[in-house]
Amino acid sequence: MSASNGGDIIKIWGDPATQLQLIIRRMGAIAVLFSLTAAVLNHGPQWPAITGLASVYILYNMLLCWRQAKPRLSDLAINLMLCAGLTVVGARYSNILYYLLLMRMVLMVGRDRAMRLTLVIAFVYVTAQLFATHALAVDFWLDVIFNVISFALLSGTAVYMCNVVETQCENQGQIAELIRENAHHYELAHTDQLTGLLNHRAYLEKTADISQYILLIVDIDHFKQLNDAYGHLFGDQVLEMVGRMLKMSIRSKDMAFRYGGEEFALVLPSTSLELGLRIAERLRFQVANCDFVHKGGRVKITISIGVARKSPNVACQDAFSKADSALYRAKRQGRNQCAVF
Predict the structure, then answer these.
(1) pLDDT band with cut points at 50, 70 and 90 for residue 12
(2) Which of 110, 128, 161, 214 could lock onto 268 through a cystine, CB 3.0 to 4.6 A?
(3) Cβ neighbours of 332 (radius 10 Å)
(4) What CA–CA distance (Å, rounded) separates 97 from 91?
């Protein structure tokens, strides 16, 4: 399951501990339904009391399930009174309700108060059994001891489940954080920090899986002289501005890279050579007519572009060599122009 899907489930159903509590509450309502059915079928002297208490138990807990309410101390008190009442009137399967209530409440209070909670529920159970039974035979005490020991074992199991749930939540949070960190590191490793474009490493990885595209190699004309005349800070501003213009000029399926130095690469999948040339001419025109300002004065910046087609039977490096050859032809012919291989 992905982190996003896990987050969606928690938004809808709550955290794992809350989900377990809702499931156990429903199990309690089902158990009481069996007690009610047994009372109606046997039609003993206490069946009206059992029917009334069981109905209240089911309605109360189903209402809390519908509201997805977390267990509270008031919930514990009401359910304990209902459980004790069912035990006193001799409802069958009533001891199961104590187990389910104990597990549900331990998931809420955790291991620190689990022992006290176990003692409270065991005390109420034993007291209710004493009211319900007149002959305190050996079988009665064996039954009481068995259930008290079972309460303690179940409480320990619930504490263990609570720890497992907490550990799982922590692990999921750590995994999600690792995924975010890895995504961030991947982005840093594949992004040019100055221009925000993909870098040379990303170019090699992403173009390897594309069989056909138009490749544009863009080079800023006389960039070294630009740095010498106006300083590297202005040169960085030019690189940043040209990179922003490239990013804004391409389609969502296209990719823009800072290949290295003052050289950029545009990969245009599902594009004809004619359309690629028109895109190149538009970019060249935009840069040539952009206002680059240095200390209040306008500096003219131009670019040269080489255009080539990458076909399925042509290697990526061969396609780059073709576009690079077209670029150098554009420079030899006077710069500020586009050339097609």
Answers:
(1) very low
(2) 214
(3) 10
(4) 11
Tell me the pLDDT tens digit for each residue of 253-267: 999 999 989 999 999
In angstroms and rounded to an integer, the radius of gyration of the C-alpha atoms of the chain is: 37
Residue 336, by phi and psi: left (phi above 0), alpha (psi -120 to 50) or beta? left
For 244-262, b/e burial (b = at least 16 CB within 10 A) is ebbbeebeeebbbbbbeeb
* Residues counted in the chain: 341
- By annotation, the residues acting in catalysis are 262
- How many CB atoms neighbour CB 79 within 10 A? 24
**What are 196-245's pLDDT values in tens digits?**
999 999 999 999 889 999 999 999 999 999 999 999 999 999 999 999 99
**What single-letter amino acid sits at 311?**
S
Distance of CA 105 to the CA centre of its chain: 29
Tokens 């955790």 sit on residue: 110
Neighbours of 272 (CB within 10 A): 11
Are 81 and 98 within 8 A, CB to CB? Answer: no
Most confident stretch, 14-18, 138-142, 295-299, 321-325: 321-325
The answer to whether the CB of 40 falls within 8 A of the CB of 54 is no
Among the residues of the chain, which ranges form H helices?
Answer: 3-13, 16-42, 47-67, 73-88, 94-109, 114-132, 138-189, 200-207, 223-230, 232-249, 273-288, 316-332
DSSP state of 212: S
